[in-house]
Specification:
Radius of gyration: 15 Å
Structural class: mainly beta
Strand order of the largest sheet: 4-3-8-9-1-2-7
Length: 139
Amino acid sequence: RVESVRLVDRVLVGTLWVEPQDGGDQITWAVDRVAGDVRGGQAPALNSAAVSVTLLQGAERVHPLDYVNPGSESGLRYPLADLFLYPSPQPTRVTVLWPRVDADTVVVDRPVTLLADGRVEASEPWRIEDVPVTGGPAG
């Protein structure tokens, strides 16, 4: 569930609660990609990061803000989101930062991930519509 999406300066700060499925302890099903960033970089370091939670604004998909780790020789981009989501039988709070969009409500979306060979990644997509943006004027 989405706890909140708050406008802080020029950034949207999303707070989500993720619960394990079927009494297990895996929570990354809801937020991760296949060990990669949204720009196509691949790294095991991102295997349990919240990189795939996006916003839909009209026909545009807005990915989390990201940065290049200054110590990285690969140029891998890390999301401004929780990077290490460990197995837990309890609900876990996850934070994601997106660039500001001019809207009073947003759609928070975890899309299907296509693998390089054309297969669909196993995680289930999900979408939560009409999430209010709080904390400041949207325009």
